[in-house]
Amino acid sequence: MTKITKTPHIVFWILIPIILLTGFLKPDKTFYFNIHDTYYVLGLINLAVLISIIFAIIGFGYWVIIRLNRRLVYWLTVIHLIITVIGFCLILFIPFFLSDSIQDFGSNLTVTLSTLAAACVQLLYLINIITAFIRKIN
Description:
Layout: H1 2-6, H2 8-25, E1 30-35, E2 38-43, H3 44-67, H4 74-97, H5 105-120, H6 122-134
Antiparallel strand pairs: 1-2
């Protein structure tokens, strides 16, 4: 785990081609979710590209911190890495494996909670980056 926390950007950058490949395998697959009386439909390829862009930005932020010889907070990095990767992969893979007719309340609830967790944990990322800039250089 120490190797991963010293180079967390590698984890995000390795996942980008895997996520894009997942999106390109079923480009016509859609995922819909209901918020109040409105149905939102999202293509799996669009979701894969969006998640890949987010992972690229997060990886770039970690890479900059490491290149500047700044120290990241260990536990913030671990929590952010685990929740972000699991959360975004659940968001992507639940629609990938379910057929359009099987999407029910349970899968929508899982995707909603995963989205909420993945979005909220990005605050830890910002705190970690800011703390790394404030700390003394190694």
